[in-house]
Specification:
Blueprint lengths: L5 E5 L3 H11 L5 E5 L2 H11 L4 E5 L9 H11 L4 E6 L4 H9 L4 E4 L4 H30 L6 H14 L5 E6 L5 H12 L5 E5 L8 H6 L16 H4 L4 E5 L6 H13 L1 E2 L8 E2 L3 E6 L3 H6 L5 H7 L2 E5 L9 H11 L6 E2 L1 H8 L7 H12 L7 E2 L6 H8 L3 E2 L2 E6 L4 E5 L8 H20 L2 E2 H8 L3 H13 L5 H5 L2 E2 L3 H8 L1
Parallel strand pairs: 1-2, 1-3, 3-4, 4-5, 6-11, 6-12, 7-8, 8-11, 13-14, 18-19
Antiparallel strand pairs: 9-10, 15-16, 16-17
């Protein structure tokens, strides 16, 4: 059974509230009546998006009047029909209400049958718009899901949204798809709840607190009116803080207060406001490292990371490479395109560390300039990719080639380097790790031990020895296998 359309009615006249209830309840709507603006605001987050808001213009009770409330809620409830009600219906009053975001105006002196028809018409208009939005969403709103990582996120994100989580953090290198995660969250949150995106790095430091939390008139030079912040606009829904690591120290303190107490204070205000907001944050910087460097608050870092989504770089997702490449080729302007098998083989040997999936997309776009008959051949590959692919991989006089396609490992001994059994075995172990990394991407220690047929404790010890012997560095080793911090200790001792 479909839910009844919700109508919220605010009026300080109990008699008029009862009259409206008598005419609307029989027509099958869910009506909630309020005598104070604060009551309506407190009830709104749990109700989601109502079909119609009926607001009295002049209220004797404390709080904002109907016109101020309409202006405040217009951004927060963009699809709700706002109907203003008053004993006055002069042209200037009607014009002022419409300018503040109202959709219709009712004169309380009208007979109740006319008022009923007008409200039913508003409910019908809301339903028509809702049906239109749902049709559009079914066709185009779902972000394009390509690759194993995105499919796994499509299973995980709805569970997060329906859980008790209030903060989710997304970490990934530039170009790994943090914006796509935001799109997926927005899709699964739906349109009944707010989802507001904020690029923290694009807002000047001096304005960030005003943008996020609002300000009162006269709070600073140029603050000529009260301003509702983005967090208050998102009340009841989600805020997506992209590049959260760029927040100033003052903004971090204010954000922590919102997350801890669900309260915010507009710039220049003397009282807090209650909000119910859940936060999705993202950055390409390691917040834990920034905490250690004193550039980010530890308590805020801990609060933002109730749950973490880690997006692996493209070099660790090579099992998705063909699917990503084919998707871009099908959707690029002028396509579909086809990349020759020889060109794909070259592209797979590039590490894409400068921009990951975004770099792959941009590179393919550039290569289409030299496509012939819709086919992209090796001749279209940019010079910088050839330079890296052709660069020999050397380590202390030893060249290691791990080619899992041809199932071979080549160890080239450097001239003048002492040949010992122990060094040979350790070099071979390093080459095996590299081969497994090329084949499957970054592995856990448990997975690598299983693939190599070595006890995990033995493998951990051997990997530490590789660092101690100077055959590799801890960061280089961690880029291939998820080893613990003891590799750093081994490097320091070495």
């Amino acid at each position: 059974m479909l839910p009844k359309p919700a109508i919220l009615h605010l009026d300080d006249d109990p008699l008029f509230l009862d009259q409206v209830r008598d005419i609307l309840v029989p027509v099958g709507v869910q009506l909630s009546s309020f005598t104070q603006a604060q009551q309506l605001l407190e009830a709104l987050p749990a109700m989601g998006e109502p079909a119609v808001l009926m607001l009295d213009i002049y209220l004797d009770r404390p709080g904002p009047d109907g016109k101020a409330l309409a202006q405040q809620l217009r951004t927060r409830l963009p699809h709700t029909l706002i109907v203003m009600c008053s004993d006055l219906h002069d042209a200037s009053t009607v014009r002022d209400c419409i300018a503040r975001g109202a959709d219709d105006f009712l004169f309380k002196g009208s007979d109740m049958e006319q008022i009923r028809r007008r409200i039913e018409a508003a409910v019908s208009e809301y339903q028509r718009r809702l049906d239109q939005r749902q049709k559009q969403r079914s066709v185009s709103a779902m972000p394009q899901v390509v690759g194993r990582t995105c499919r796994e996120l499509c299973e995980r994100i709805p569970r997060m949204i329906n859980s008790a989580l209030t903060a989710v953090h997304v970490y990934g290198e530039t170009g790994t798809g943090k914006e796509v995660v935001g799109d997926l969250f927005a899709h699964f949150v739906g349109e009944r709840l707010p989802f507001i995106r904020i690029h923290c790095g694009a807002i000047p430091a001096g304005l960030i607190e005003s943008e996020l939390f609002g300000h009162v008139k006269g709070a600073f030079t140029g603050a000529q009116n009260n301003k509702i912040g983005l967090f208050e606009q998102a009340d009841g829904g989600w805020v997506f803080l992209d590049e959260v690591a760029t927040l100033s120290a003052a903004a971090q303190v204010a954000l922590l207060r919102v997350l801890e107490n669900q309260e915010l204070r507009p710039v220049g205000a003397t009282q807090n406001k209650r909000v119910h907001v859940r936060v999705l944050s993202a950055t390409n910087e390691n917040l834990e490292q920034l905490v250690q460097e004193g550039k980010f608050r530890r308590d805020l870092w801990q609060r933002l990371c109730e749950a973490v989504i880690t997006l692996p770089p493209l070099r660790e997702r090579m099992d998705e490479f063909d699917e990503l490449l084919q998707s871009f080729c099908q959707t690029m302007r002028g396509g579909p395109y086809e990349v020759s098998a020889s060109a794909i083989e070259v592209l797979k040997h590039y590490d894409w560390s400068n921009g990951n999936i975004r770099e792959l997309r941009n590179c393919l776009r550039a290569m289409t300039e030299h496509a012939y008959g819709g086919v992209i051949a090796p001749s279209a590959i940019p010079a910088f990719i050839w330079e890296q692919v052709n660069k020999p991989q050397k380590s202390e006089g030893l060249s290691i080639t791990a080619d899992h396609h041809q199932r071979r490992i080549v160890l080239e001994w450097g001239e003048g380097e002492e040949l010992t059994y122990e060094k040979l075995i350790m070099r071979l172990l390093l080459a095996l790790v590299a081969a497994e990394y090329q084949k499957q991407g970054r592995l856990t220690l448990r997975q690598l031990a299983k693939n190599l047929g070595i006890p995990r404790s033995t493998l951990s010890t051997k990997l530490q020895e590789l660092v101690k012997m100077g055959l590799t560095s801890a960061p280089e080793l961690r880029s291939m296998v998820n080893v613990m911090a003891e590799t750093d200790a081994a490097e320091n001792k070495g």
